[in-house]
């Protein structure tokens, strides 16, 4: 009887162990189902990340091309600014030449005025000689007429020189205004080149950010693949 009771208890224990094993197998099956679902989700995430990386690579290429175009534009703008600066230097040289021409005109007018003074003194001397030498009044009068004509010619030359100096001064003022405008334009062009360079730096930072995002995505892919491998 005791052996039959022990056998019955052992059967009950074995049945309970079978039930526990069945429950554990059910739990393992549920865990395997959850693992399968997680692997499916990870696969979908990897597909999405791969698609994002595939889309991000052409975008990075486009950004790099835009950066190259912007750098070329900045080089062209810098060359234009150099050309404008050279033009301003040429205009300044032209203004210096005009200034020298005006100085020469002023010197010519001074020389003409001195010649006029000399001629006037000669006229005075001739008049004194005409007063002293009454017998040679005809000759002296002719000489005085000639000298007066020469003085008129000199006066006309001096007037023309003065007018030329005034015209040259006006041309100098125009050239100086043009050179100031050219310098202002060169300053505007330099500001535009600085703006373009800042835009290129921003695009460089954007490309670096895109590359960092791609690196993060690749690291996430590596982590996901390692998780799937485990």
Automatic annotation (TrEMBL):
<feature type="transmembrane region" description="Helical">
    <location>
        <begin position="61"/>
        <end position="79"/>
    </location>
</feature>
<feature type="transmembrane region" description="Helical">
    <location>
        <begin position="141"/>
        <end position="168"/>
    </location>
</feature>
<keyword id="KW-0472">Membrane</keyword>
<feature type="transmembrane region" description="Helical">
    <location>
        <begin position="85"/>
        <end position="107"/>
    </location>
</feature>
<keyword id="KW-1133">Transmembrane helix</keyword>
<feature type="transmembrane region" description="Helical">
    <location>
        <begin position="204"/>
        <end position="225"/>
    </location>
</feature>
<feature type="transmembrane region" description="Helical">
    <location>
        <begin position="33"/>
        <end position="54"/>
    </location>
</feature>
<feature type="transmembrane region" description="Helical">
    <location>
        <begin position="114"/>
        <end position="135"/>
    </location>
</feature>
<protein>
    <submittedName>
        <fullName>Uncharacterized protein</fullName>
    </submittedName>
</protein>
<dbReference type="GO" id="GO:0016020">
    <property type="term" value="C:membrane"/>
</dbReference>
<feature type="transmembrane region" description="Helical">
    <location>
        <begin position="7"/>
        <end position="27"/>
    </location>
</feature>
<dbReference type="InterPro" id="IPR001734">
    <property type="entry name" value="Na/solute_symporter"/>
</dbReference>
<feature type="transmembrane region" description="Helical">
    <location>
        <begin position="175"/>
        <end position="198"/>
    </location>
</feature>
<dbReference type="GO" id="GO:0022857">
    <property type="term" value="F:transmembrane transporter activity"/>
</dbReference>
<keyword id="KW-0812">Transmembrane</keyword>
């Amino acid at each position: 009887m005791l052996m039959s009771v022990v056998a019955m208890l052992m059967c009950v224990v074995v049945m309970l162990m079978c039930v526990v094993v069945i429950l554990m197998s059910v739990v393992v099956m549920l865990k395997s189902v959850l693992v399968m679902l997680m692997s499916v989700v990870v696969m979908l995430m990897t597909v999405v990340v791969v698609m994002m990386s595939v889309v991000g690579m052409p975008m990075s290429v486009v950004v790099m091309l835009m950066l190259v175009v912007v750098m070329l534009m900045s080089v062209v703008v810098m060359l234009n600014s150099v050309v404008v600066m050279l033009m301003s230097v040429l205009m300044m040289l032209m203004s210096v030449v005009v200034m020298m021409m005006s100085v020469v005109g002023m010197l010519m007018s001074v020389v003409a005025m001195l010649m006029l003074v000399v001629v006037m003194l000669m006229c005075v001397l001739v008049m004194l000689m005409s007063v002293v030498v009454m017998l040679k009044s005809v000759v002296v009068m002719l000489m005085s007429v000639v000298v007066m004509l020469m003085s008129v010619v000199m006066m006309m030359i001096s007037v023309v020189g003065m007018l030329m100096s005034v015209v040259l001064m006006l041309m100098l003022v125009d050239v100086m205004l043009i050179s100031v405008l050219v310098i202002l334009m060169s300053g505007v062009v330099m500001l535009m080149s600085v703006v373009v360079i800042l835009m290129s730096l921003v695009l460089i930072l954007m490309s670096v950010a895109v590359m960092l995002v791609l690196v993060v995505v690749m690291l996430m892919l590596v982590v996901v693949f390692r998780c799937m491998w485990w």
